[in-house]
C-alpha cells in the first residue's frame, strides 16, 4: 500500500471511533529533545478488526508495524506539491524530519499511530501540527491525509518556550478563523466524531517541577513529568484552555 493511501485510510479509521491523542515532549538538560503525538484507536479494532483488514488487504491475524519518514511521503507527492504556493511548499518542507509509525494487531485489538521528531530547541516546534494540516491541499482541500493533520486545524497559533527556569505552552486564537469554522457545515460533524475523544499532554523535563498553572496536572513520583487530560473538543474549540506555565525548582 502506497504511503499516501495508507495515511488517508488511517484517517478514515480514526474518524469512525473515539480516540485518545497524546502530545509528548521530552526536554533534555541541554534543551534538545523529542516531540511526538500518539493516537490510540484500539477500540475500533475491537469492534471491526476483520473489516479493517479486508479494506487494507491485510490479514488482521498478522501484526502490522510500518514506519516511514514524511520525507518519503513528500517525495511521492512531489508533482502535486510543486503546484502549491511557495508558502504552502515551505510549510510542507517543515515536515521532512517527522517519522510516522502505524501498528495494527487484530488478535491484541491494537491500532496505534505515532508521529515523532527530534528537536534542538522547543522553538523549532512552533506550529508543527499546523504545518501538517497543509497536506490537505494535496487533495484539493478534502479530508486531512492523516488523523494528525486535523490537529493543526483548531484556528490557533501554538508556541512553546523553555529557558531552564520556566516552560510555557501557549495557543493564541485567531478569532476570525474560529468564527468561520463555527459556521462551517462540517463543524457539527467534527464535533460529533471527536465528542468522546481525549487530548492528553505529557511532558518530561530535566528538572523537578515547582508548580504548574493548571490545577489538574498530575505529577510523576520524581516530579519531572506532568500529565494533563482534556476533552478533545476543548483542544479543537477552545485551544487556549490548554495553555499553561511550568516553573522549576532551583
UniProtKB/TrEMBL annotation:
Top-level taxonomic group: Bacteria
Annotated signal sequence range: 1-20
UniProt keyword terms in alphabetical order: Signal
Name this polypeptide is given: Lipoprotein
Amino acid at each position: 500500500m502506497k504511503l499516501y493511501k495508507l495515511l488517508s485510510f488511517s484517517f478514515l479509521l480514526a474518524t469512525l471511533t473515539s480516540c485518545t491523542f497524546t502530545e509528548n515532549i521530552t526536554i533534555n538538560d541541554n534543551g534538545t529533545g523529542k516531540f511526538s503525538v500518539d493516537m490510540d484507536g484500539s477500540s475500533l479494532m475491537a469492534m471491526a478488526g476483520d473489516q479493517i483488514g479486508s479494506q487494507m488487504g491485510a490479514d488482521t491475524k498478522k501484526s502490522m508495524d510500518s514506519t516511514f519518514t514524511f520525507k518519503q511521503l513528500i517525495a511521492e507527492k512531489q508533482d502535486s506539491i510543486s503546484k502549491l504556493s511557495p508558502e504552502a511548499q515551505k510549510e510542507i518542507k517543515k515536515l521532512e524530519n517527522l517519522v510516522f509509525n502505524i501498528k495494527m494487531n487484530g488478535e491484541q485489538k491494537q491500532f496505534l499511530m505515532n508521529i515523532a521528531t527530534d528537536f534542538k530547541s522547543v522553538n523549532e516546534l512552533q506550529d508543527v501540527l499546523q504545518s501538517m494540516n497543509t497536506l490537505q491541499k494535496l487533495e484539493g482541500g478534502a479530508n486531512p491525509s492523516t488523523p494528525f493533520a486535523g490537529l493543526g486545524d483548531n484556528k490557533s497559533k501554538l508556541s512553546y518556550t523553555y529557558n531552564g527556569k520556566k516552560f510555557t505552552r501557549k495557543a493564541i486564537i485567531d478569532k476570525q478563523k474560529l468564527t468561520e469554522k463555527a459556521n462551517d457545515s462540517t463543524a457539527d460533524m467534527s464535533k460529533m466524531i471527536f465528542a468522546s475523544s481525549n487530548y492528553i499532554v505529557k511532558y518530561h523535563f530535566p528538572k523537578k517541577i515547582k508548580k504548574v498553572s493548571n490545577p489538574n496536572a498530575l505529577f510523576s513520583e520524581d516530579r519531572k513529568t506532568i500529565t494533563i487530560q482534556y476533552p478533545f473538543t476543548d483542544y479543537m474549540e477552545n485551544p487556549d484552555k490548554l495553555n499553561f506555565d511550568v516553573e522549576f525548582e532551583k
